[in-house]
Each structure stands twice: as C-alpha cells, then as structure tokens.
Design a protein that fits this description.
Family: Belongs to the ABC transporter superfamily.
Strand content: 15-25%
Protein name: Nickel import system ATP-binding protein NikD
Bound molecules: adenosine-5'-diphosphate, magnesium ion
Catalytic activity: Ni(2+)(out) + ATP + H2O = Ni(2+)(in) + ADP + phosphate + H(+)
Main location: membrane
Number of strands: 10
Helix content: 25-40%
EC number: 7.2.2.11
Largest sheet: 6 strands, mixed
Length: about 300
C-alpha cells in the first residue's frame, strides 16, 4: 500500500491560543519500504500518526491530504469510515509500550479473538499467533505473565489481524532493552519486506538506522529533510546525528521553540550556527531539504 502525504497541517485550539503541531508536512511511503520519522520529543510526531489514523481529539483542525493507494484520503474520510473500514484493515497501529496497551484483566487470546471478531475475520487466533512467533499456550496468559518481547508480539498480532497494508509504529521500542529493540526492529522489517508500507516513528536513530530505507527529520512541527542519514544536509539533521553516543556525542545547544509561539522564520534559526539573514523567512522544502544554507 502506498501513502502520499501532502501539506498535512494540524493545529489545536487551546485556551488563549493555538498549538501548531504539524505544519505543511509532505512525504511518501511506498509498499515494501520503511520511512523513519525522527525528531526531538514534542515536535509533532505522534500528532501526525494520530492524524493518519483519524484519532485526533475534537479541538484539532486538519488540512492537507494523506492518500492511500491514490484513492482514499485519510484526512477527509468520515469518522465511521475510518472506524469500520480503515483502522486495523488498511492502516494498522503498532502501539507504544504494548504491555500497557493490552487490557490487564483479559488473556492475550481473548484480546486477539476480539480483534478478529471486530474485523469479521475467519482467521484463527492460534495460527495468527504462531505467525508472530508465539506458541498457542502463550495466548492463554494474562499481560503481566508475558515478557516484554511476547507482549510486543501479541500487540503486533492484534495490529496485523486485519492484514493492513500500511503500518504506523509510534515509538514501538521505548522502554525496551537493546536486544529487544533490535528484535522488534527486525520483526518490523520483515513485515515491511512482505510488501507493507511502514512509517516508523522514533527518537532512537540507532534503531531506525537498522531498518529504515529513508528518514524524514522533523523539527518544531515541520519536516526539514528527507533522505539518508549518511550525509545529512540540514544543520538540525547534522546536529541530531552528531548527538548520538556512537558519533561525536555533542548535544545540539538550546531547546526547541514552543509550538504555541513558533518564530516567523526558520524555527531552527535561534539554535543554528550557520544562520544567515535569509533565515528570518521560512525556507521552502526543495529537493529534499528546507534550509537557506544547506549544502
Ligand atoms: N489534544 C491536544 N491539545 C493541544 N495540544 C496538543 C494536543 N495533543 C498534542 N498536543 C501538542 O502537540 C505537540 C506535539 O506533540 P506530540 O506529537 O505528542 O510530540 P512527539 O513528537 O513527542 O510525539 C506538543 O506540544 C503537544 O503538547
Ligand atoms: Mg510521541
């Protein structure tokens, strides 16, 4: 399944103002490929994911489009269409911290069977579980009896019960230890290799580098660069890479702006060592990067 996002913008009305969480974001995810959306906490990644799933709260306004396979716009589809025909069937969500996402008082089997029933699927829970590396007996456990890795697999089985062609994984490895991070990433990659489009949202660059075909770098609500991390061009993207423990390990000075008070020019300008007077205007996204000084 192919996802084509164009000019996606999300704002929230709050008492006394507006939060601009996603600004004019455009990208594509192709079948069988994984795009990693990375950026510091609070830059708008989860809001973007929720916009794609039709899960934004009532104080949100959305514009732009997010078209699946050239025919279904996830932004303008009515809520009942998103609930009955899209979520779980065409777009699956791999949740953050699956152990807490599962209901504690019901077995994994009860929760997987419920997902299958809601989808009207004739697929049997045990064989689906087996596909995700679980033994049938694992399904009879309660969430607290599952290891982190098993809970992740149950969550994956539930997310994939309706065989969606687009997977959105929002911080799927937060709180997991490194071996489990790597296993979760490898499982996501094999779901992708079966032909699904995967949007991986994370601030763990190392995990993303293991499986992503391409990176979209998000800063203060905007995607500022799309490409590889081998030779980042935007000063923020270079800063993110240099901040990694296995690279220079130098943090980017300063902090991101408040999304209620975004500067009128490039939002990274106050932290940017390469800034020039032209940076007082928002740079257009052109040829993979939004920057007045990028090489
Ligand atoms: N329902 C809401 N009402 C107002 N602001 C919100 C709402 N949901 C998220 N935000 C704001 O949107 C911004 C982006 O948040 P989020 O997408 O969760 O960031 P992250 O990149 O860490 O996932 C934050 O400033 C957050 O406070
Ligand atoms: Mg988030």
């Amino acid at each position: 399944m192919k996802l084509d996002v164009q000019g996606l913008t999300v704002t929230f009305r709050i008492p006394g103002g507006v939060v601009r969480a996603v600004s004019e974001v455009s990208f594509q995810v192709r079948p069988g490929s994984c795009l990693a959306l990375v950026g510091e906490s609070g830059c708008g990644k989860s809001v973007l994911a929720h916009a794609l799933l039709g899960l934004l709260p009532g104080n949100a306004s959305v514009s732009g489009s997010a078209v699946l396979d050239g025919e279904l716009d996830l932004v303008s589809a009515p809520p009942p269409v998103m609930a009955r025909r899209v979520r779980g069937r065409r777009v699956g969500l791999i949740p953050q911290s699956p152990a807490t996402h599962l209901t504690p008082v019901r077995t994994a089997r009860a929760q997987l069977e419920e997902a299958l029933r809601e989808l009207g699927s004739t697929c049997d829970a045990s064989s689906l579980a087996e596909r995700f590396g679980l033994r049938p007996g694992d399904l009879d456990r309660y969430p607290h009896e599952l290891s982190g890795g098993m809970a992740q697999r149950v969550a994956n089985a539930i997310a994939l019960a309706g065989d969606p062609g687009l997977l959105v994984a929002d911080e799927p490895t937060s709180g997991l230890d490194r071996p489990l991070v790597e296993r979760t990433m490898d499982e996501l990659r094999s779901l992708c290799d079966e032909g699904r489009a995967v949007l991986l949202i994370t601030h763990d660059l190392r995990a993303a580098e293991r499986i992503a075909d391409e990176f979209a770098i998000m800063y203060a609500s905007r995607v500022v660069e799309i490409g590889s991390l081998e030779a980042p061009r935007h000063p923020y993207a270079r800063g993110l890479v240099d901040a990694q423990p296995d690279r220079a390990f130098v943090p980017i000075p300063g902090t991101p702006p408040e999304l209620t008070r975004l500067p009128s020019g490039c939002a990274f300008e106050p932290r940017c060592a390469s800034a020039v007077p032209a940076c007082s205007a928002v740079p257009a996204f052109d040829n993979g990067v939004a920057c007045h000084v990028a090489s």
